[in-house]
TrEMBL record:
Reaction(s) this enzyme catalyzes, per UniProt: Cd(2+)(in) + ATP + H2O = Cd(2+)(out) + ADP + phosphate + H(+)
Alphabetical UniProt keywords: ATP-binding, Cadmium, Cell membrane, Membrane, Metal-binding, Nucleotide-binding, Transmembrane, Transmembrane helix
Localization terms from the record: Cell membrane; Membrane
InterPro entries: ATPase_P-typ_P_site, ATPase_P-type_domA, Cation_Transport_ATPase_IB, P-typ_ATPase_IB, P_typ_ATPase, P_typ_ATPase_HD_dom
Residue ranges of every copy of the P-type ATPase A domain listed in the record: 113-213
Biological source species: Tissierella simiarum
Family: Belongs to the cation transport ATPase (P-type) (TC 3.A.3) family. Type IB subfamily.
Protein name per Swiss-Prot or TrEMBL: Cd(2+)-exporting ATPase
Enzyme class name: translocase
PANTHER family in the record: CADMIUM/ZINC-TRANSPORTING ATPASE HMA2-RELATED, CADMIUM_ZINC-TRANSPORTING ATPASE HMA4-RELATED
Gene: cadA
Keyword Metal-binding attributed: yes
Amino acid sequence: MRLSKGKRVLISGILVAIAFILKNVIGQHLITSIIMIAAAIVAGIPIFKNAISALRYKIVGIDALVSIAVIGAMFIGEYWEAAAVTFLFMLGDYLEAKTLEKTRSSIKSLLDLAPDTARVLRDGVEVEISPNEVIKGDMVVIKPGEKISIDGSVIEGSAYVNQAAITGESIPVNKNAEDGVFSGTIIESGYLIVRAEKVGEDTTFARILQMVEEAQDKKAKTQKFLERFSKYYTPFIIVLSLSLYLFTKDLVLSLTLLVIACPGALVISTPVSIVAGIGNGAKHGVLIKGGEIMEKLGKIKVLAFDKTGTLTIGKPMVTNIKTYGLKEEELLRITAIGEAYSEHPLGRSIINRAEKDLGSITQVPEEAEIITGLGLKVLIDGKVYLIGNRKLFIQNGVSIKDKEDYINSEENKGQTVVIVGDLKEIMGVISIADIVREDAKNLISNLKNLGVEKIVMLTGDNERAAKAISKELGIDQYYAELLPEDKVRVLKELQERYGIAAMVGDGVNDAPALASADLGIAIGGASTDVAMETADVVLMSDEIEKLSYAVGLSRATVNNMKQNIYFAIIVAGVLLTGVLFKTVNLSFGMLVHELSVLLVVINAVRLLGYSEKDKFKTMLLLKGED
C-alpha cells in the first residue's frame, strides 16, 4: 500500500510516541525496540528511496546523509535515535512542503482567476464553450460577475471591469465601445460584447501566468552558488565523518556529525525567498522575470528613464491659453475649426480641448491651406486666419514683437506654442505639452530614498523640453535629441561609470535600450507585446509609481535572503560545535536542523505580505544607514 506523505508522518509519529512511552515505562524491551524499528522503517522508506534515486544521477544529497546515519544507528542498536531522526526528517519535509505551497500562492490565485467558460454568439444564439474553443473574431458575451476569457475590443455595451489580475489595481475601470479588455479580468457591473482578438495561450493573462511560472523557476546567482557549494560540501561531510570515526573510533559521534552537517536550511534559504518575492510582485501587477533579475533590481545604481509615454502620459494636451482682445472660448473655437483638416497631433489636442470645453464642433473652414513646417492658413466665416509658428506670421507680415516675451517664456517651460491670428495681428497663443504623469515626481523622490544613486532621462525631444521636465521632476541629468542607438550608447557610458544600470521605457521604440541595459523595465505591459518580451521587469499598469514598489520589494527580498543565509550558517556552526563537544545528540540535532529549515521558509513567507507600508520602512532603514 502506498502511503501519502501526510499519512506516513501521522503513522510514524504515533509509533514514535508509543515507543517513547514504552522506553520510559518498561525500558528498552523487545516490544519497544520493534516499535522503534517499525517507526524508522515507515518514516525512512521515502528517505532511502530519494537517496538511491539521487545517487543514480551521481548526486549525494541530504537524504543520503540521513540514510547513512540511520543505517549506522540501527547497526549499533540505537533504535530510538533511528526512529527519532527519520520521523523528524519526514515531519520537517512535510511542513516545509506545506509552507512552500503558500509561497506559490500567487500562482494558485492566478490560476483561480483563469476563466472556466466563455459565452459566444454562434448564428445569433449564445453558446457556452471552453475558453480554449474560442476562435479569433468570435463575439463573446460577458455578463455581471463573469470573467473575461479573451483579449479583445468592446463592440457593444458598457461595464466596470476589475483588472486586478493584470494590472494589480482593484479599482474597476469603465469600459465602453472600442476599449480593449483582457482575459482574466472580471465584470463587476454592466455587460459587454467583445470581439476576440487574442485567444487561448496568446492572451495577456495566459502569458503573464506562463512568465510568472518561468520566473519562479529561474535561479538567482546566490542560489546557483549555494547549489554548487552543496554539491561538493555533502561528499566532504561524508569523508569528514569517516575520518572522524577512524580517528576517534566513536561511531555515534561520526553519525551525529553526518546528520547535523546537512546544509538543508542553507540550500533552501535563497530559492524560497525568490519564489515568495516574485509571487508578491505578480499579485501587485509587477512581473519580475526570475531570481537573478530580482537580485539585480535591488542593486541598481543608476536608473535611466525614457520621457515620452514613461515620465509623461505620451499624448500632447493643451496646457494654457492666452488671448488678446477676444474670449478664450472664441479663440479655441476658431482654432479647432481651422485644425479640422489637419492630421498633426498638436491640432488633434486642440480639437480635443475644444470639444471638451465647448461640445461637438462640426463646422469646417471654407478654405484651408497646409503650409509644411509653418502651420495653416484658413478661411472661416469669410475671414482669413493664421494658425502656426513664428515663421508663418513673419512670412505673412504680421508682427510678433510685443508677444515675443510670453512666447519665449512658454517655450522655456518645455511647451510647444501655437500662435493664432489674422492677417493684421496675433489674437492668442495656445500652449501644448505632453504633460508629466501625476505620480512621476513622487516616484523620483521615492527612488532616491530607496538608494538609487543617479536618475537620468533619455529623450529624443528637444533640449528645452527635456530641461524643463528634468527640473520639474528633480531628475539628476538629462540627455536630449537622442536617436534609439544614442540611448544605447549613453546607457553603456552610465554602466561603466556607476555600475548596474536599468532602463525604464514603454517597450516599443525603447526596445534596443531596454535590451542593452543591465535591467530593462517596461511601463504598461498589459497593452504592449514588445514590453512583455523585451523587458526584465514589466509594470502591468500605467501607474509608474509601482516602480518604487518593485525596487522596494526587490531590496526586501535580497535582505530576506541574507537573513536566511546568515541564520542557516549560524545554526550549522552552533550545531557542529555542539557535536564536536558531545553536547548535541543525533535526535536533538535533527530536531534543531529541521526547525531551522522551517524557520527559513516561514521567514520567506513574510514577503507575501510585503506592501506599500513596508516600502516606506525600507526607505527609513536606508536613510538610517546613510
